[in-house]
Amino acid sequence: MRILIVNPNTTASMTEKAATAARAVAASGTEIIAATSRMGPVSIEGHYDGALAIPGLLSELKERQAAGYDAAVIACFDDTGLEAARSFADVPILGLCESAILTASFLAQRFTVVTTLERSRVLIDNLVRRYGMGARAKVRASDIPVLELEDAASGAIGKLRAEIERALEEDGAEAIVLGCAGMTDLARQLQDFYGVPVVDGVSAAVKQAEALVSLGLSTSKRGSYASPLPKPFTGAMSAFSPAGKLG
């Protein structure tokens, strides 16, 4: 089985961090392929960044088709471009937020997602509600710009820990979900320290992708995720003009 991990931002160190987390949980017969978008923002913080990251994401999905992959994971907790990718692809596509909160729901009645900035908190809170977990999950921002997670001297880990402690005390959280792909390497140590389940979206998405492939299931192409209708696209988007699908 081959699972493609696509980082929709252009920071390669974040891609490697996600790939390491994916390989740590992947089954022995699963190959993890990591790809970094070659166009768009260096980090995704809010709606504007997310919108401009989608073309690069779709390009990676398209260009990796020749080598083949059985499923793909979009390594951004905003589930950037998830619906567009599902419309394009013929294999399962997993997003970190959806995968993580569904996993947390198996483990706890109440859980808190701890993310980076307030603008991301609002976006993720909307996703949590859309995925049907609004009554069970709270979303908190730790006031950490995404790229500070790559800097050990930034103080980001202290801010993250402080927000987790508030979630446990004030929210009554029984589990914690790490709301950024840049936090993926911290899950195990935080779980050991706080003694509650700490869910990393990359790991959750990889295991769910393996399950879907093993079950022979993929995204329905009837209705909302049907392949794009062929039509001309103009200007800079002309390369994305679909012929039944992106091509």
UniProtKB/TrEMBL annotation:
EC number, as in UniProt: 5.1.99.5
Family: Belongs to the HyuE racemase family.
Gene3D superfamilies registered for this protein in UniProt: 3.40.50.12500
Annotated catalysed reactions: D-5-isobutylhydantoin = L-5-isobutylhydantoin; a D-5-monosubstituted hydantoin = a L-5-monosubstituted hydantoin; D-5-benzylhydantoin = L-5-benzylhydantoin
Stated name of the protein: Hydantoin racemase
UniProt GO molecular function: amino-acid racemase activity; hydantoin racemase activity
Domain of life: Bacteria
Enzyme class: isomerase
Organism name: Rhizobium phaseoli
Pfam families documented for this protein: Asp_Glu_race
PANTHER family, per the entry: PROTEIN DCG1
